[in-house]
Amino acid sequence: MQSSHPDVRSAIKVLEDTLLSFPEGSNSHLDTMEKMANLHVAQFESPSHSSANLDEAIDLWREICRLCMPSGHRHLLALYQLSTLLQRRCFPTRLLQGLIHDRSPQTSKPNRDDLDEAILTQRAALLICPPDHELRLSLLGQLGSSLLQRIDNLAALQESARLLRSALSLCPDHDKHRFPLLDNLSSALASLVGASERHSVEAEVEELVRIHREITDHHSPTAENRIGSLIETGKWLRRLCEPPLRRVNRAKCIYDLAQEILQLSPENSQARELLAIVEVVEEQGSHHHDTSIQRLTHEHHLARFTTISSPTIIRLLNKLQFRKQSTLQPLYHKTSNDGPFKSGEVDTEIRKNLYCLCRNQSGEGQNVRLAYLNLGTLFQRRYLDGNDICDLNAAIEYQEEARRFLDPQDDFYSILSSNMQNSLLRRYAINGHIEDYKRHYELALEECQSAVHLIGPTLLPSPMVEHFVAPTRTLATRQENWETLIQYHGEARTPDSLGQLAEHIFSRFTESHSEDLADLTKVLGLINEIEQADTPVPKSTSNLRSRVFLCWYRRSGELPYLNNAISLAATQGYTTTHMEALYERYIHEGSSSDLEKAIALGMVLHHPDNRPTGGYYVSSLGLCLSTRYSRTGNVDDLEESFRYSDSIDLAEAYMHRYERFGRVEDLECVFQAGGLSRGDGKGYTADGEESTTSDYDEGDPNFWSTRKSILHCLALLTMHELQADPNLVLFAKSIITTAETHCSYTLRPYLLHCRVRIIVAEMGESDSGLHSAIAAVEEAISILPKNCVHRPLFLASLGDLLCRRYYSTSQQADLIASIEAIRGALSQVVPSNPRWAAYSFALGMSLELYSKTGNTEASPMVDAIFSLRDAAFAPSASLQIRYIAAINWAKAAAMSADPDALYAYDIVMEILPQFASLGLDVRDRHRTLVRMTSDIVSDAAACAISYGSVEKAVEFLERGRSVFWRQATQLRSPMGTLLDAAPDLANRLAELARDLNISSLRTRGPGDSKARLAFLAREGPKRRALADEWEMLVEKARSVEGFEDFLRPSRYTQLAKAAAVSTVVMLSATAETCHAIILNSEVSTPRYLTLPLMTMPRAVELTSCLQTTLNRANRQSRRVAKMVLPFRAKSEETAFACLLAILWMDIVKPVLDFIGLQKSTCPPRLTWFCTGALALLPIHAAGIYAGPENISISDFVTPSYTPTLSHLLLPTQTSTDKVKLLLVSHSPGHAPIPNVSLELRCIQAVIGTTTTNTICIQLENEDATYNNVLAKMASSHITHLACHGTVSHDPLDNAVVLHDGNLKVDTLMRTSLVDARLVFLSACQTAQINPSEPDEFIHIAAAMLFAGFRGAIATMWAIDDNDGPQMAKSFYHGIVKGGTVDFSHSAASLHKAVREGRESGPKNSF
């Protein structure tokens, strides 16, 4: 694909539009995705490229790998393309083309996750790549190159070399890929030689010689890079000749090589060095011993910088350029203006100075003095470049030795002292030896006491040594470390040591959780002593005073200390401490001016003009912004806080956002951002979690450790509310127990709050522990300052606990105290506060209870309704609080006959779909809806009926059921006439619908890789942005004339049209009664019937009985006929018959009598719309099958079900010119289904003999593959699946079993079947509803309807294998009318088939 495509973006959008028209995983679907990926790559390679295009291409290839058939050619190609693009993203500054691995310097570190995924992908591709495949060479080279970049151990190097050798064996001599392969292999072998612990690596060195010889031959005779290749060859030949290999016979090769270099470059010094090596090697060949030279202990250092022995290099240097001893130059004058050291110059200078010391036997002279001084600095510079501890040790050794040669008055002495201090500090940071720290401090004191002032020009420090601040080191124990340092500095008593002493005492106090405030007094005394001395006070020491006062306040809660901290920090300009202190005073006194001032200081601090070199200031600005959100409810503050937060502050911001919007992904981020464990043994110890300090706190790690524990506990308890996992509560309890042992005074109330929440979580529905919880809250309130901003939280918590105690004690005093406490909380917050709605809701509930006590001196119920209504409308409240408040408002209003009751239920129905926001993926949508929905829909309908508005009851039932499917269907709604009225708007909405549909199906799954999880993390914000734009444009569309109700729930006038297809009976049960609403096209208004014998508790009980009976009857899979004990069968049938009789007497018969239906040989169609537990009951089979009467629903009507009335309004096509019938059967890994083949033959026989316009397509056994079935379904009108079905705990994984995989619900949701009309699911449990989600069910049949089928025949439980062929034969015979298939007879044909099956069975069979 050329990057010069005239309009790549338009081409991508065209492909995106067509993608959903193909079944997922079909060849057309995969082809389209490949074209999109290639276009994104082309866009990335264009001049106006964006990394987002590369990300999209990678995501597309990753999806292709997931969807295409494993081990096939397409799968191999997709893996190859994915690994190539991952390498490109891994090394953004390079262009990796197939095999070449560019080893040029990088400007950024490679993305380790991408590199890991690339390696895994390349390994997977090689596993399925045939030996003679054209991609094998590229894959071997790619994997070898990737492993070379990600060296973990010697084995990885060896594998890299092995793979590259294999690639070379497949690569022809003059192939363009051979040179980069040789280059990579040479790098791998060179690293192996360097990393090998063997004394002899002759084979690898010989191979390197051969490789570089071939690389040399690859270059033209006059090429400049030919000289470099010759020199590399000479380097490895020299390695062969030197000890320990001593292959002196290769000296002739070195000589010939040097002559060839000199022919190309006569003045080449490296060639002359090679000639000199030849002489040395020949000399070594005749003398098998080394001549020792008397020298100091420099030999082992000198040997590190050459591969031959020290005596040999001395002779070599004598022969070349150091025959006469030259004068060394000091390196301290080499500033940045002179330019940096060139590559290899440091090592050259080290060799030069070491040689000088080796030559000089006397150890005297100017050169010796400079050599020691230079070597100390050179080794220090070498350590900075390579982090080799040997270089650091050598630097300290030579610096210590140089001090003996220099007088303190020497110009070099102060520079040497400074460099040595840095070296000692670095080694202390690595090894933790206190002697290094002591020596460093002695040098610093010596420098201060000597007070030497240099005369003459000021010498600049060497640019090779940069200022270094050692990180905090932990010795055997931190306490021992502090005690050692405190004792050491306490003995010195100099101004500088006093400052260090104060810092260490303060650190010991804060980190040891000491309760002895005398340490703080001692610190302040030391600061006073320093200030009284006649020396400048270090800046860190002057800031220590304000930090001490801030810490003192946190330990004591006394405000004067906090005011002192603010005053000192403001005077001396310590912004971060000033911000923290202002934040603390805001929490203490509630003055918004303190918070605003702290935010203003933070904004100035983080302004780009004030940004420190190479980074940002880290401060409490994020915490202050999220705190202002907690006060005002302004979401902009919350979103902005993410920019300035890190660690615990960031986790707290995510917690605020979860509480506001209820997104589970935000709760996940709380744990990730804060580094919090869930109790799985990672990230914490048995004693609790590790103490960690804030990045911006300079002096109180104990405070931040406790704050982290509090947030950790709250996150665990919040997760417990979702998962009901008692282990989370136990883990939270252990964290708080540990934190209580070292808690600051100001944080103690919040620990008590956590303790209360733990008690409430542990006691569940019981009242045990209630008294201790109330006592804990009362203690917290007594500790809190009167104006503390968190005081309302504790007052509301007290009110809630007192209200709970009233339930068990019935003491009105508790209820009155509860109301007073909650009113106290409300009086201290503004309505925009995010917690205001929760307090108002709690007040409404307490007032409602109080109204039932009989004390009517006031109007508590009226006040309760107002409080609940206010909470439901609170703009800053969380969705959950508004929803619960609206429900209770509606119930209270209905109880009081308030005319606003129906309006309140309208608000409930308006909030409910918001839990299924399009910004969530489909799994999160469904989980949230299941968690939030209950019997509220039936209660709303019952309320509407009691108010005489049956039409409103119909609307409530439609709006409150199958919200998940309705939301998903919106994204597939055609824009229709909006395209004519506002084409641009309609087109953009169509694009958003497509993108949201694709994005919402990208969900987390078990076993997701880190790369997949990272991709999904990026997908969340992108999906939310799309959802926000969708909502905005939908509102814009509603402003267009004639589209005021665009995508709004249908009103009754529209829903009533569903009765034109069939009479509809809508069943809804409450705790007290049950209503049946009848919609009939012959009656203009809906009618309703009360069914007093059926209630929701009774329906739940019947559902439980049904599940027990089915389990005993083994109705979990398509059952092959087998022997069953007679008494067992009789017991099951009796129970089932009893259940069906109850449904007949309590529901079906009263409804049929009310409608006026009689027995009929051609019964009319009746569609059931069931809510709650009623949806799980087999109403379609209700009847009395025992005794002489033997009457059932099928004698009166043809029953069917609908999930919503809207589905009945979809346009239908009763017939078509040519009907394609797809027949699928398979049962891999499951019990065989013997009669499946007979079932398909029966269908073919019926269709073949009765129709002339039907084409049968059959896929059996190995032909029934995932891709084949999806592709044929796309072009078929009828699909008949005679397979096994599976039901999973995750309903999106419910599936039909095929030959090479499962056809899952989430796959069907990605698929659009335009021509589909009818699906016959002769599989197990394809319409089984989970009892926990009756109104938000997800099963195979529903997914088929969503994919495009207009009708579905499915099973609520497993069927007998013997019944399948007869049922199918009868059904297909019934839908054929006049030689053609008529889909309008589907319900009647099924009804007839069921009756025939029943009649052909035993007497009284159901």
What does this structure look like?
The protein has about 1400 residues and is mostly helical. Helices cover about 60% and strands about 5% of the residues. The protein has 57 helices and 19 strands. It has a five-stranded mixed beta sheet with strand order 5-4-3-6-9, with helices on both faces. A five-stranded parallel beta sheet has the order 11-10-12-16-17, with helices on both faces. Helix 55 (about 1340-1345) links the parallel strand 16 and strand 17 (about 1350-1355). Helix 37 (about 835-850) packs antiparallel against helix 38 (about 860-875). It is flat and about 125 Å long. The two termini are about 65 Å apart.
- Separate helix tally: 57
Q: Widest sheet: strand order?
A: 5-4-3-6-9
Question: Percent range for helical residues?
Answer: 55-70%
> By helix and strand content, what is the structural category?
mainly alpha
Extended strand count? 19
Estimated radius of gyration? 41 Å
* Average predicted confidence as pLDDT: 79
Percent of residues in β-strands: 5-15%
Shape: flat
Low-confidence stretches: 93-109, 286-296, 317-325, 333-339, 451-476, 681-698, 1117-1129
Distance between the termini: 64 Å
Biggest sheet details:
5 strands, mixed
Organism: Piloderma croceum (strain F 1598)
Protein name: CHAT domain-containing protein
InterPro entries: CHAT_dom (IPR024983), TPR-like_helical_dom_sf (IPR011990)
